[in-house]
Amino acid sequence: RVNSPVMIVWVCLFFRFSTSRQTLTWVPDSFFSSLLSGRISTLKDETGAIFIDRDPTLFAPILNFMRTKELYPRSINVHMLMHEAEFYGITPLVRKLQLCDELDRSSCGNVLFNGYLPPPVYPAKRRNRHSVAGSQLIGGRVMPPERAPVRRSNTMPPNLGNSGMLGRASTEERSCGGQSSDSGMVRIICGHHNWIAVAYAQFVVCYRVKESTGWQQVFTSPRLDWVIDRVALNAKVMGGSLGDNDKMVAVASVTEIILWAICPDGNGNEIGVFSLNVPVEALFFVGNQLIATSHTGKVGVWNAVTKHWQNQDVVPISSYDTAGSFLILGCNNGSIYYIDVQKFPLRMKDNDLLVTELYRDPTEDAITALSVYLTPKTSDSGNWIEIAYGTSSGTVRVIVQHPETVGSGPQLFQTFSVHRSPVTKIMLSEKHLISVCADNNHVRTWTVTRFRGMISTQPGSTPLTSFKILSLDDVDGHGGCSAGTEIGPYGERDDQQVFIQRVVPDTDKLYVRLSSNGKRLCEVRSVDGTSITAFMVHECEGSSRIGSRPRRYLFSGHSNGSIQMWDLTTAMEIAGKVDIRALGGPTEEELLELLDQCDLALTRTPDSTPRASTCRYTHTCTTLLWLDRS
């Protein structure tokens, strides 16, 4: 039977090692001491060799360490060997490998690490001043409840122990209607000027930065009875009419919205509780107007002057963007509509918003992504508007309206038919046109040619790059929120945009990639080893000092409730001095290491995007250990 194929396979898989009992047992309470003392059952072959179901290639350096107490890390994979050493319980080897792994890491981060905000104190419960279950007094008018059932979270909170103030809330306090959410983790981060708002499961915290004092916590909302899905921040309104209370923060959960005004002393006054009557898909400010939209075709507007909340029915909405005081809506019927929110009070008498159709797609495909570019900022002849949009069929189009053609509406400028899946994101900037489709976040970038600031037909937009940003979703729903993990593109429209790539849900690593070529600008890793649950790129204003300019930061929110900040302006400056390595997202080796953190699902979603859960798996081989009885 020597020539049997089965026998050949076994010869290839099994390795035989010989050593002494003394060599294996000098480390107390290890796997080997338990094995040889009989506390662990053994499987032996006919020769007495003990069978161990682990990778033999990794066992060889472990056995060598047990013999010599020496380690040669250059010839091994430190992470994989550490995993095996932990399994065998060889504490001295684990410690040595940890030191090797942490040789170039620090809890103070690298040169890009810019700051750390610890988890905030868990706030007191909100008093039900404006009951979300009863009628609401808004703008002097009693509004009926018209409220859909509030969605509850579907995961149990983790046992945070006393690791932070967030962990001290009882399970009962953190649960809602028998179900609960991970209260300790950061769900969403948003920024405006020199402020950021950080949303946890049931409350929101606002911070502001000053050059002399750094980041300071200025407002914490009461603890709500429902889980936050969306957050919006308004930290500065040019010519605003709210006086000292021109800073506002709003949160939404399903149909309900709560709005606070933040006072100069840091306290907050609840302005009101509003209902869109349908699930809120987007929440944001246009000037000092709070806007909520839903894909069902509802638009809600709260006006700071009239203190009035207005719901308006329009065509089902599939995308939106803002330009000045205009709200631009892309809809399922292939039309682009606009609402001038500054003219909101003028139509109060007939209780209706002025919704105007701007353009209709030639094929009437649903407008699934929108990006508006206004240029120039000031002009004697008036502004012209450029709009790039993507459709459900994957088509990308650019339309342009010049001041002299206002009466005839926007004109179709260019069409691209390179995507074969629905376009999910799009951005038209000064130098680039960027689009992303549903095929594993496939990105296409074009170079935009301009003449006197306006997009030019000669030679027009030219292809620049094509790449994917693989990002696996968490189907187990560990209390996360997709609004907090948008890949981008991020950045001002007159500057270089970046994408943020988080490959697997339970990871402490992010890849920052340039939108112009897909190359890796930098890689950031949590300084405390905690998983990254939310992220956002935001540009903060410069100080009043001469020569100061705005700086771009990556804010990462973590599973323990902390916020970590990374200086992308420095990363861009470093990249400009040296050639960026020809790397995009993770390499094949890095991807395999990341995928070891999750078990890929066998099912596929309708958009063919792979999903993942956070179950760990271990790839093992087999080892035969021969023990020298001497």
TrEMBL record:
Cell compartments where the protein resides: Cell membrane
InterPro entries, per this entry?
BTB/POZ_dom, SHKBP1/KCTD3, SKP1/BTB/POZ_sf, T1-type_BTB, WD40/YVTN_repeat-like_dom_sf, WD40_repeat_dom_sf, WD40_rpt
Under the heading Gene3D superfamilies, the entry gives: Potassium Channel Kv1.1, Chain A (3.30.710.10), YVTN repeat-like/Quinoprotein amine dehydrogenase (2.130.10.10)
- The residue range of the signal peptide is 1-20
Q: Cross-referenced SUPFAM superfamilies, in alphabetical order?
A: POZ domain, WD40 repeat-like
GO biological process annotations for this chain's record?
protein homooligomerization
**Annotated keywords:** Cell membrane, Membrane, Phosphoprotein, Repeat, Signal, WD repeat
- Domain of life of the native organism: Eukaryota
Known partners and oligomeric status? Interacts with HCN3.
Q: What does this protein do?
A: Accessory subunit of potassium/sodium hyperpolarization-activated cyclic nucleotide-gated channel 3 (HCN3) up-regulating its cell-surface expression and current density without affecting its voltage dependence and kinetics.
What is the name attached to this protein's record?
BTB/POZ domain-containing protein KCTD3
Q: Which lineage? A: Eukaryota, Metazoa, Chordata, Craniata, Vertebrata
